[in-house]
Amino acid sequence: MTPDTRTQKTPDIRLVVLDMAGTTVADGGLVEQAFAAAARRLGAEPDSMLDHVRATMGESKIAVFRHLFGEEAKAQQANKAFEAAYAELVDGGRVAALPGARETIEELTAQGRTVVLTTGFARPTQDAILAALGWQDLVPLTLCPADAGGRGRPYPDMVLSAFLRTGAAESVRQIAVVGDTSYDMLSGVRSGAGVVAGVLTGAHDAVALGAAGATHVLPSVAELPGVLA
């Protein structure tokens, strides 16, 4: 069941924590392509693993590799191979902002809200995406799992780190968490955020987002300023 947002009163949101790939950034399935390349470099057959990769979109990538490969050394090797493969695709011009994403961030900022961008990628990959889009100075803070103690989604650590580091909100109820996966929704629910919004431009559908606790399900992030206004 998906949430009915028509009669919900939106809290006074001061901090907006936005996911990147699938929410504000279109990567055209690059995660799966980079994963397949990484698996092959380790001598593994990616086809048997892709279902798990798709199901865990939004989770910290190193956590996914730990599940798939077991031993830590091999997981770290796979993660490095993944990051290298993804970086090559980014350098090849394969990422773009989703329609209205930059405008949404600028409008939220103009409304007096603080926007933070988060990802399940490692810092070098996140920085490469930001550089490719020209977004290095678009928001005051960007976070990857390592910036928040090493645990990525579905843990709430990045959301709570954004809350503590920006000082933009007085209560976690003044946070909006926005993403395209069930892991984004879980991290928002676990943080206590007042708005946990799923968008339909990425990995998971409305049913999965609603089941994971979304308070709102939106066609795209472009709808967010109107919902919060």
Automatic annotation (TrEMBL):
A GO CC annotation given for this chain: cytosol
Species lineage: Bacteria, Bacillati, Actinomycetota, Actinomycetes, Kitasatosporales
BP terms from Gene Ontology: DNA repair
Entry annotated with the keyword Hydrolase: yes
Keyword Membrane attached: no
Organism: Streptomyces davaonensis (strain DSM 101723 / JCM 4913 / KCC S-0913 / 768)
InterPro entries: HAD-like_hydrolase_sf, HAD-like_sf, HAD_sf, PGP-like_dom2, PhnX-like
Pfam family, one: Hydrolase
SUPFAM superfamilies assigned to the protein according to its UniProt record, in alphabetical order: HAD-like
A GO molecular function held by the record: phosphoglycolate phosphatase activity
Protein name, UniProt field: Putative hydrolase
Keyword annotations: Hydrolase
